[in-house]
Amino acid sequence: MANDLEISHRPWGHYEVLLDDPELKVKRIVVNPGQRLSLQRHQQRREHWFVAAGTARVTLDEQEFDVGAGDSLDIPLGSWHRVANRGTMELVLVETQTGSYFGEDDIERREDDYGRLEG
C-alpha cells in the first residue's frame, strides 16, 4: 500500500500528519541534526511527545532536559516549549495533540532561529 501522507517541510526538518480527528491530531516529527523548533506555546491544545529515535533536548518553561528514545513527556496547555536535536542522527517524535483546536495558527512564538516571529 502506498504512503499517501503529505509531508510538510520546515527549516528544522519535516512532519507528517498521521491522524487528524476532531478529538485529537497525531504527527510524526523529524528534526534534523543540529536543528530546533521555535520556543512556542498553544492556548487551545496540549501535547504528548514520544521519542521514537534519537535524543530530544527539551525546553519546558524554565527547565531544559534530555528525553531519550522510548521515553515520553506531556506539554501542558499554555506552557512554553521547544525541542532540539543536538545529535548527529535524525530525531523522530510522535506528537499527540488534544484540546479544542489543532490549527497551526495556535502557535505563539517567543524565540525562533528562522525569523518566524509574529508581530
Helices, strands, pairings?
Elements: E1 7-10, E2 13-20, E3 24-31, E4 39-41, E5 45-53, E6 55-60, E7 63-68, E8 72-75, E9 81-84, E10 91-99, E11 108-111
Antiparallel strand pairs: 1-2, 2-3, 3-10, 4-11, 5-8, 5-10, 6-7, 6-9
Provide key terms for this protein:
119 residues, mainly beta, 6-stranded antiparallel sheet, 11 strands, 55% strand
| Sheet with the most strands, sense and barrel status | 6 strands, antiparallel
As an assembly, this protein is single chain
CATH homologous superfamily placement: Jelly Rolls
The succession of helices and strands, N to C, reads: EEEEEEEEEEE
Percent range for β-strand residues: over 45%
Name of the CATH architecture: Sandwich
Kindly identify the CATH topology. Answer: Jelly Rolls
Radius of gyration: 14 Å
So what's the CATH class?
Mainly Beta
Low-confidence stretches: none
Sheet/helix structural class: mainly beta
Arithmetic mean pLDDT:
93
- Strand order, sheet with most strands: 1-2-3-10-5-8
Number of domains: 1
Quickly describe the structure.
It is built from no helices and eleven strands. It has strands at 7-10, 13-20, 24-31, 39-41, 45-53, 55-60, 63-68, 72-75, 81-84, 91-99, 108-111.
